[in-house]
Design brief:
The structure is a single chain. The protein is mostly helical. It contains three helices and two strands; from the N terminus they run H-E-E-H-H. The chain has two domains: about 50 residues, no CATH class; about 40 residues. It is about 50% helix and about 10% strand.
Length: about 90
């Protein structure tokens, strides 16, 4: 795998994992180790260049929430709005 492909994979992985953060304080991912069995070598990776901004993470969370909200409204239009009011908001 080329260096460029590895970088793209790290960017995509860190971006996806970061969207699962339950807090707005600091980065969700703070470190990373890479290894490839059967080798016992482990490589520490500085994830700082791959971390998305807090705004990007919040934007993706809001977009994901909107998709779920739309699915609820389409599947149960008669109770969709009432159900959506009971769900917690994305912070």
């Amino acid at each position: 795998m080329s260096d460029e492909q590895l970088i793209e994979n790290f960017e995509a992985l860190i971006e996806q994992v970061s969207t699962h953060s339950q807090t707005k304080v600091g980065p969700f991912v703070t470190g990373c180790s890479v290894y490839c069995p059967p080798s016992i070598e482990e490589f520490r990776v500085d994830v700082t260049p791959f971390l998305p901004s807090e705004e990007d993470v919040l934007e993706k969370k809001e977009l994901a929430k909107q998709v779920v909200d739309d699915m609820i409204k389409k599947s149960t239009p008669e109770i969709g709005d009432d159900l959506l009011k009971t769900l917690p908001t994305v912070k």
